[in-house]
Write a structure and sequence with these properties.
The complex is a heterodimer. Among the domains of chain A are: 2-78, Immunoglobulin-like, CATH 2.60.40.10; 84-242 and 424-440, no CATH class. Chain A has 13 helices and 20 strands. Chain A has helices at residues 91-95, 121-131, 134-141, 214-218, 244-253, 263-266, 277-282, 288-301, 308-318, 324-336, 341-354, 362-374, 392-397, and strands spanning 2-7, 15-20, 26-33, 39-45, 48-55, 61-68, 72-76, 146-153, 166-167, 171-176, 185-190, 196-201, 208-213, 234-235, 237-241, 400-401, 407-412, 415-416, 429-434, 437-440. The longest helix of chain A has 14 residues, at 288-301. Mean pLDDT of chain A is 82; it is low at 103-112. By secondary structure, chain B is an alpha+beta fold. Chain B folds into two domains: 3-305, Rossmann fold; 311-386, Immunoglobulins (Immunoglobulin-like), CATH 2.60.40.10. Helix content of chain B is 19%, strand content 31%. In chain B, a hairpin with a 2-residue loop joins β12 (253-255) and β13. The model of chain B has no long low-confidence stretch (mean pLDDT 93). Classes of the chains: A alpha+beta, B alpha+beta. The interface between A and B is large, with 49 and 51 residues.
């Protein structure tokens, strides 16, 4: 008998790993590798030939033959996309399986070949579903050059970006600096009419990499989901928090099915090495965004693990700048609250308040709309405070996909739909959309890769 | 009568409620805010097929003993109820799935259930996504009251929330209906569909405190905004793929000496049906956006059998025309398991069932030197593609 040690780097993200003997019989159970648990040991395995299957939250699976012999066998996992991307700045996103290693094309202005997808996983599948509709494909590809401008809300003298945006044919990369203050930003890639995809940017303590996808931005005809034959939300951007553990939780949160979800919050014999979503939640005052992601994750997969008081405190901390903590609290009260009129009243107040604040995570938006329906709020009516704000449901009608962040088509962070919003901040960058690819509007110096 | 199968069991069992609405006799024409609802024979066919399989070849496969099956069906030619051909040979008259009948069936379905029971709900018919409510399923008497039609619709999202507060801790909800919003439905401001089960504040917590953690799986044949389809005289396309998964292709996870269907294997099987099973010309029809999701940290198991599913391989080349021009050989070790000769009748997309969980070598010889591709046959489906030749 011998041991097999499987290792992965943190850049690969969450991987559910199984060792299969001949005939597909699992040996040694299922292990979850993640940024905080980068090795797993299959103990007391008979020497011989096996297959290792590593599955991502998207369902994408890697199989590797393993010959186990000697005292201990070590296997370092790499995915086929483990090589460096041809676009240097996309390498980490490629390792996580967010984008393919080899881009569809490398020259500005050339159309992408059929079948080449600028995204993989769920985003790639959704984009494929949308583009495979002939009507959508035509509207996305036959268009003439479209002028786009990148906006960042709120306007500021100091750029929140670590360095200037980088453009490739398929992607536009924005590297957000580590957040120094609690406040939500939004970025939009607006056309000449003043509308386009908007993505909410929470203040990540370690920063965030956001990649707008050219083909997603070009598929603006799919903005109204009810008119989109595939009904899929258009993936307009890919988000990768710089904190690998948070990136793990965010991608796992988006999984339709996540076997072994428990391992992502409690796995690890060494507490200093464990991701512990509960730890993030415990330290909510230090990092409310990490705590919110952890709270959303736990609320989905193990809600009873979380003390209600923690959620209440998180809601208090985050309420001034985002709705997510408030919605999380309302959801907990709905499930686990006391059955009395005071609880009912409190939930209604929370939902009304949440309707007047920005959501920064897409799962919150869906939860907010569903909870408001339960409490008799109309899908289309604005909040009860009588403000001239769009209803929470109207964001869903034009929602887009940005790797778990709130995203929609609109004229600004508070203007979902086809209506342009006056009073935009100064544009950060101008570029063109040509045949589903990004093209710099003016020569780029030192940013092209 | 709705109950077509009953067999007591101790320690929990599987209880199934199936509703297929193939006819909406009172909604044949559109009125102000309600769209016309044409007959859909595939809904009746789907419900009947699933019920028949559940009480025959699947009965011994469920994760727990099958305890009861309740069936409600109407069809275009039998709008008030249909005759169910029981595998024993007898015919049973089942009621039409009106709202009243559905409520009665729900009560029977959940009567005396415990935490150890597994409940399965399947509905097929017209569905509408209401902006003010979400996903709904229309009962057979929808349209009975033009002035207040939505009371004859079932609010599926609310139903799922309400069911989560019931004792059975393993729940499978399968919604085989459209989730789009016809223009007339969009005009409705205040709608009041029936939830069948009403969720309460704190209800989920109280049930979990008494009965334990919930494992609820939701399968839907259409994502929000999308439509579901079926062909006359056949089950819906989703039901066809679901039946294939439960009959043949979904047994991909080994546990306790058996091969099991779980939510992940269901997703893989249904998602690959278009390429594994359907005629190539039907691939667009069987390619549809679906929902299979669960919040369970340990997804539940649905059915089992002793043998794993086979793995269907689709062999192709770039360009497609290259494969029929060459000699294709598929080997497992030294053994040749399949081959195709070049020629006019050779397939450009060669499909073959392989014994699962093995490595195979695919060899294509067009000119002198053969091209080799290795693939691991992980059920239910893999593609082996010979890449474009370097120029």
């Amino acid at each position: 008998m011998t041991d097999l040690v499987v290792e992965a780097t943190e850049t690969l993200g969450p991987l559910s790993v199984q060792l299969l003997a001949a005939g597909g019989h699992p040996v040694g159970g299922r292990h979850m590798l993640s940024s905080s648990m980068q090795a797993a040991t299959f103990s007391d395995v008979e020497p011989g030939d096996y297959v290792l299957v590593a599955t991502r939250p998207t369902g994408e699976a890697l199989t590797r033959p393993v010959r186990i012999a000697g005292e201990r066998t070590r296997l370092a996992l790499t995915f086929p996309t483990g090589q460096r991307s041809q676009h240097e700045f996309l390498t980490e996103a490629a390792w996580r399986g967010l984008v393919p290693t080899v881009p569809g094309n490398t020259t500005f202005g050339l159309p992408l070949p059929a079948g080449a997808l600028p995204a993989t996983g769920s985003a790639g599948l959704a984009l494929n579903a949308i583009l495979s509709s002939k009507r959508r494909f035509r509207s996305a590809s036959v268009s003439a050059d479209k002028a786009l401008t990148l906006y960042i809300w709120p306007g500021s003298e100091t750029s929140p970006l670590l360095f200037p945006p980088r453009i490739s044919a398929d992607y536009l990369q924005l590297s957000f600096s580590p957040a120094r203050a609690w406040g939500v930003r939004a970025v939009g890639l607006l056309n000449a009419e003043g509308t386009g995809p908007i993505v909410m940017i929470p203040p990540f303590v370690d920063g965030l990499e956001l990649f707008f996808i050219a083909r997603g931005a070009a598929t603006d005809s799919g903005a109204q989901r009810v008119s989109n034959p595939s009904a899929a939300r258009v993936p307009v951007a890919i988000a990768k928090p710089c904190d690998a553990k948070l990136a793990d939780l965010l991608s796992a949160l988006g999984a339709a099915i996540l076997p072994g979800a428990a391992d992502l919050w409690v796995k690890g014999d060494d507490p200093s090495q464990s991701a512990r979503a509960l730890d993030y939640l415990l330290n909510k005052a230090e990092d409310p965004i990490a705590a919110t992601i952890a709270g959303l994750f736990l609320a989905r997969f193990q809600p009873k693990l979380v003390p209600l008081e923690w959620v209440r405190r998180l809601a208090e901390i985050t309420a001034p700048f985002m709705a997510d903590g408030t919605v999380l609290l309302a959801r907990y009260l709905l499930r686990y609250g006391e059955a009395n009129s005071a609880a009912m009243h409190e939930i209604k107040i929370l939902l009304d308040r949440a309707g007047r604040t920005s959501c920064v995570f897409s799962s919150t938006r869906a939860q907010l709309v569903q909870a408001r329906r339960l409490h008799g709020f109309s899908h289309s009516s604005p909040s009860e405070a009588g403000e001239r704000r769009p209803s929470p449901g109207s964001y869903l009608d034009v929602s887009a996909d940005a790797g778990g962040l709130e995203a929609f088509w609109g004229g600004g962070p508070e203007s979902p739909g086809r209506t342009a919003k006056k009073g935009r901040p100064k544009g950060t960058l101008k570029l063109l959309l040509r045949n589903g690819t990004f093209v710099p509007a003016e020569p780029q110096v030192g940013t092209r890769q | 009568m709705t109950r077509i199968f009953e067999q007591p069991a101790s320690g929990g069992g599987v209880r199934i409620l199936i509703a297929g609405v193939g006819s909406y006799p009172q909604a044949r024409r559109a009125v102000d805010s309600v769209p016309a609802l044409p007959d859909i024979s595939s809904a009746a066919e789907s419900a009947m097929s699933l019920a028949r399989l559940a009480i025959s070849s699947w009965a011994e496969r469920f994760s727990k003993p099958l305890v009861s099956v309740d069936l409600l069906v109407n069809a275009p030619d039998t709008p008030t109820g249909s005759l169910f051909n029981h595998p024993r040979g007898e015919q049973i008259r089942v009621e039409a799935p009106t709202l009243t009948a559905l409520k009665a069936a729900r009560t029977d379905w959940l009567a005396q259930t415990t935490r150890d029971d597994v409940v399965i709900f399947y509905c097929c018919g017209h569905g509408i996504w209401l902006p003010s409510r979400g996903r709904t399923f229309l009962a057979a008497d929808f349209g009975e009251d033009d002035e207040d039609p939505w009371t004859r619709a079932i609010w599926l999202d609310g139903f799922a929330l309400g069911l989560a507060e019931k004792p059975p801790r393993t729940q499978w909800l399968i919604f085989d209906c459209c989730a789009n919003t016809p223009t007339q439905a969009m005009l409705n401001l205040a709608t009041n569909p029936a939830a069948l089960l009403s969720p309460q504040i704190g209800g989920r917590g109280r049930t979990e405190a008494t009965h334990g953690t919930l494992s609820q799986v939701i399968l839907a044949s259409a994502t929000v905004g999308a439509q579901a389809f079926g062909r006359a005289g056949r089950p819906s396309r989703f039901a066809e793929a679901l039946i294939d998964a439960c009959e043949i292709s979904g047994y991909q996870t080994e546990y306790d000496g058996y091969w099991w269907i779980d939510p992940g294997s269901l997703d893989k099987s249904i998602g690959s049906f278009a390429q594994r099973v359907a005629d190539p010309s039907d691939e667009p029809y069987y390619t549809f956006p679906r929902v299979i999701t669960t919040d369970a940290a340990d997804p539940p198991l649905l059915m089992k059998r002793e043998q794993p599913s086979m793995c269907t391989v689709m062999v192709m080349s770039e360009p497609l025309s290259r494969l029929p021009r060459g000699e294709l050989v598929i080997r497992c070790g030294e053994e040749i398991v399949a081959q195709q000769s070049a020629g006019l009748w050779a397939h450009a997309r060669f499909r073959h069932d392989l014994a699962p969980w093995r490595y195979y070598q695919f060899q294509l010889k067009v000119d002198e030197s053969p091209v080799l591709v290795d693939k691991f046959a992980m059920p239910p489906f893999v593609k082996a593609i010979f890449p474009k030749e370097a120029t």
